[in-house]
Structures are given as structure tokens and as C-alpha cells.
Amino acid sequence: MRVVVVGATGNVGTSVLETLSAEAGVGSIVGIARRVPGTPREGVEWVSADVRTDDLESHFHGADVVVHLAWLFQPTHQPMVTWRANVGGTERVLRAVAAAQVPALIYASSVGAYSPCHDDEPVPESWPTDGWPTAAYTREKAYVERLLDRFEAENPDRRVVRMRPAFIFRRETASQQRRLFAGPLLPNRLIRPGLPPILPIPRGLRFQAVHSDDVGRAYALAIATDARGPFNLAAEPVIDRDRLAELFDARVVSVPPALVRAALAMGWHARTLPAAPDLFDAVLRLPILDTGRARAELGWTPRYTAVDALRHLLSGLRAGAGADTPPLAREAGGPWRWREFASGVGGRELGVG
């Protein structure tokens, strides 16, 4: 089997490559990224290409499956840049898949594609995918779901899988996720149990998490089977204030979401925080995922709990952990994180990945 992975150097991409490299049924892996790693990976043929501008079809010819993972989170102050990469880039991937006659496409959707939910009853894959309209990330994920609807209608002979995971964590992605969501002013040494002794948490915050390794296995299972359609991916338990209190060994104090949002908005407008406050609005409204379909049809069971996944991320944040790809490199922000400051902290695309 020949598998092409678009966006192969990020959080999920590295886990997918690790899993596929150990699969006997996979004979050829092509990893496509804007900037390829300087260190070769056994069994992977690297191709440098940008989904926004470069030829994709020639790299897709002969593939049995294309896995589309490429996604741009920043710059949040320039939503048209992320739209062109995420929506326009996906349109180009779909056209290339159709033109190259690739029989199967697996796409990285997200819990963020789902419409808001006002209770904690787990939702199946049939829940509406209209996102939260004011946040660029959720708006783009929802729009791509419509692109996939059209692609399936126009190409009924193609097998299309949509993975909709919860928050994906692993130790090696800590430096990247700090750059994308927390910014350059967060000191690594503060991320440890007992410091601070009091942890303010927005009232009503709860979310699900899953380890990147488990997500990589889910993709490998989808590649190896005849599965099609959407699959929710999340591990137990739901992360709430009690779980956070245990992880941080701190007393949790609930604070009004409006107060937290105001602080985030101030930091975002002042270019000290990279994540827009609209994303916080979306996170508060995410549904809890029912993962029964992935367990039943893919035979997928997460090996890590949600607490394990988050604990690994926190450990990586304390250590400034990274990996040997451009997006995950711990030094990607530059000495003293000057590249992050030079980018305007969400003002323009960082020159990595």
C-alpha cells in the first residue's frame, strides 16, 4: 500500500508516520510538508510542497490513500491567510485527489467542527457540523466539512473518512502548542504542580483530550480497513475542574468566563497572546464526544487516558520539549523567543513548518 500524508511534520503527522512505519501492509510512505525535516526518517520519502500553491496531483498518482492533515493555526490577526491555507488548500487537495484517481481520502477534522452544545450528553457523529461562527478555526473546520460533502457527492466511488478528535496532546508537541496558543511570555518553569497554589478556571470549562499516539493508531486503522464516514476520537475521562486541580496540585477557583475572555482579548489586541478570544468562546461550547463508533467499527481503544495525555503535555511544557521537525522544533521560536515576538504574536505566519 502507498500512503501519502499531507502535513506530515506536525502533531498528528509525526504520530501517523510512526504508526505507519511499523505496519507490514504499508510499503511506501510519502510525507508532504512545506519544510521537510533535515533528518531522514526510515521508510518515508519527503516532498516539500505548499498546499496553497504547489503541484499536488503528481505526488498523489499511484497512492492508495491520501491523508490530509495540513492546517495553519496562525496568524490569528490575519484570518484570510489561514482561510487560504485551510479552506483553499483543502480545495486543492480534493481536486488533486480526484484528478489522480486516489481511491481513499482521510481528512483531519475536529471536535471544533461541531455546532455548540449546551449540556454534557455525549454527541454522535450525526451532530451538526456548523462550528462556532466567530472563531476562525471552528469556522474553517465547519466549511471544510461542506467541501467534503460536495466531494463525496461528486465522487461516490471514493472512500472518505473524517476524523473528529478532541484536543490532541503529546510531550513532543509542547513547544509548538505553547507558541500557537500561549505565546512567548509563558515561563516554562511555572508549569509544574503546586505552582501556583490557586488555579483560576473559567466557570463551565470542561473538555476532552486524546494522546497523539492514539490518534495516529486511529488513522492507521482507517487506512487498513474499508471504514468510511466520520469518527469521534477522545479518551476518558472528561477534563474538568477536579481533574485540573489534581494535575496542578492546586486549589481551583471558578472565575466568570466574561472576565477571562476580557483578559484574553486584551492580551490578543496587545499582541502578547497569539490565540484570539473567539477561540475561547468556541471552547466553552464544545460538545462531549461519543466515541462508540470508532471503538466498534475501527476497533480503536485509546491506550492513554485523557489525564495521561494532558500530563505528558504539561511535562513537555516544563522541559521545553520538541521534536526533529520544523513545526515541532523546540528552537523554532528563536533564542529568547525572538521570532515569536518578531511575528507580532499572531500577527503573521511564523517562518517554520
Q: Mind sketching the topology for me?
A:
Blueprint: E1 2-6, H1 11-21, E2 28-33, E3 44-48, H2 57-60, E4 65-68, H3 79-99, E5 104-108, H4 136-154, E6 159-165, E7 167-169, H5 174-182, E8 198-202, E9 207-211, H6 212-224, E10 229-233, E11 235-239, H7 241-248, E12 251-255, H8 257-269, H9 277-284, H10 292-298, H11 306-319, H12 338-342
Parallel strand pairs: 1-2, 1-4, 2-3, 4-5, 5-6, 6-10, 7-9, 8-12
Antiparallel strand pairs: 9-11
SS class: alpha/beta
Oligomer: single chain
Percent in helix: 25-40%
Number of helices: 12
CA gyration radius, whole angstroms: 19 Å
Shape: globular
Could you explain the architecture of this structure?
By secondary structure, the chain is α/β, with parallel strands linked by helices. Helix content is 37%, strand content 17%. The protein has 12 helices and 12 strands. The strands form 3 sheets. Strands 3-2-1-4-5-6-10 form a 7-stranded parallel beta sheet, sandwiched between helices. Strands 7-9-11 form a 3-stranded mixed beta sheet. It has a two-stranded parallel ribbon with strand order 8-12. The longest helix is centred in the first third of the chain and has 21 residues. The protein starts with a strand and ends in an 11-residue tail after the last helix. The model has no long low-confidence stretch (mean pLDDT 95).
